[in-house]
Amino acid sequence: MAVAVSVRNVKKTYHGSPSIDALKNISFDIHHNEFFTLLGPSGCGKTTLLRLIAGFEDLTAGKLHLFEQNISHLPPEKRPVNTVFQHYALFPHMTIIENVAFGLRRLGKTENEANTAAEKMLELVHLDDFATRMPKQLSGGQQQRVALARALAPQPKVLLLDEPLSALDLKLRQNMRLELKRLQRETGITFVFVTHDQEEALAMSDRIAVMSAGKVQQIAKPDEIYETPANRFVADFIGDANFYDASIVKSENDVTTYQIGNGVHLKGPLRPNMPDNAKVTLFVRPEKISIINFSTLELVSGEIKDIVYLGSSTDYQIELNSSLSIVVRNENQQNGLAIAKPGDKVSLRIDPTSIRILESENS
Amino acid sequence: MINKIKQYVGIMPAIFVIGFFMFIPILIIVTYSLLEANPYGGVNWNLTTEAYTKILYERDLFDEISFNSAYLVIIFRSIWIALITVILCLVAGFPVAYYIAIQPPSRRNFLILLITVPFWTNLLIRTYSWILVLRDTGLVNNSLQVFGITDTPVKLLYTEGAIALGLIYTYIPFMILPIYASLERLDVKLIEASRDLYATRWITLRKIILPLSMPGIVAGSILVFIPALGAFIAPELLGGGQKLMLGSLVQLQFSSARNWPFGSALAVIILIVVMLALMLYARNAHKNNSEGTIH
Ligand SMILES: Nc1ncnc2c1ncn2[C@@H]1O[C@H](COP(=O)(O)OP(=O)(O)OP(=O)(O)O)[C@@H](O)[C@H]1O
Ligand SMILES: [Mg+2]
Description:
heterodimer, A: alpha+beta, B: MetI-like fold, 13 helices, binds adenosine-5'-triphosphate
């Protein structure tokens, strides 16, 4: 598979007082035709990485290649990448069509050619009726789509998008997700998408790079990120999870019994090459656990402490012993009634394969 | 009703200021320009357009009038020098304003303060200092000779160039400040977007930065043009009264020439030129505004 963007040992330090190491030695590849997402909490360096690729910031160390071409020190206008800015950054003194044609004109197209291509782009984002308006005369969602059309018009090799949906309301955001996916498919352009919204990342991406504090924690497909996170940070950042420090009690037939607290045991998968009584961290997603009637035969039982109604599902907080509790998420049934009430004693069924083992501690 | 009255009371100061400081003086000047000159100063209360005629024609001993371009030359020289001043202020002031605008905010205020430093000293004294710099035995000519670039002094003082230099020096802050104000509001993302869309620095300057700072450029040009047109100190001191400009001419009419109506008529001419310039500005501002509203 062709590599669209290759990031090699990239470091970025913002000098000042104090100096900030925004990126600490990052390396990875973004594939051609891929919808690649940079996901992470605020301040983890997503925008910095995007700006480095666009050429708005200078590398402190490392190399950037775009389809094998070293772009590390090219000015932005020499890089065949375009950016969709968070707040659109449309040129306020130009009409919509002039905005969209701007890049094409700079690439040496005649006014006619540029306008024809710009009109096509506006059609693609369903804004062909707005060509002669000024940016201020458009709603936020429309401006967003103009920004997209403007960045796509010169047919860049890679499109960079920095939280392009964050200024839109929820419904519009959901529509734009589909729209972005469609545009990416139809144009075949590699998208590098920045967000701190995990739902957005899971819904849209071919692959996700989860970042924290200037480092890449994991790069994988959305389901892999969710099901087999590389470490506790990723597991915690994506979705909800119950975490337990555990010690191994015994192992037999691929199933290991772990003790997660005083008298509380869980059955989980065996971790290869692990010494006996090693300390590990277990985690289990709340929706992978089912609540059943109280039974002394089950391994895990507890008392419901709290119920949180979430619309399509309900969270039950269950106390396992005085210092240990677990959250279970249950799809709401047709009648919408809760399956238990606070104070109920219930048992839990947890499939050993839904338990994940993490390195005990590293970030 | 009470509110109405309150409203009027509220704008009274504004009406008073505009009326007292603008309308009445202009009325007096226009009136005087239409009266007969009193050879001992002041006016005789007889209506006549003599003052305006004098701008274009002269009356000889036999009371015959013939075309006289002397005053017209002065008027056009003044407009010309004021325009040169505006253009050079713009060329020199824009990069300064831009430089200040891209500094970190804390430094910007300091630099803006520096721009206003000349205002802390009297203009007359500052202009006299220019004489010391420009005269034949002044700083520039001495240096030129010391370094062997010239043998004899170059005539710098009492030229149109000296006048323009003095005017630029005096008025360039009025160009820098409004341009800075519009550049400071410019979103740097727009510059990045332009570079991202394959525009070089130069094209970005032409296509994005200049158009978006146009309100500041126009405001600065007007703020420089108006006082430069009627300027008196720089033309008088640095031009040595040899290259007469409108300001000096007007001053002359009210002093030694004792022709108040002619002085007033010249002032009215300045007023008309300035108003034409302002109308151009208003049209420009209107165009900019209507672009921003939803139709
Ligand atoms: N121009 C700058 N000068 C100094 N420090 C900066 C600059 N830009 C970013 N930083 C710092 O670098 C770090 C990474 O910032 P960055 O903008 O890349 O984060 P981000 O992941 O995009 O966050 P967010 O989700 O809030 O946009 C932060 O600590 C930030 O304060
Ligand atoms: Mg960011």
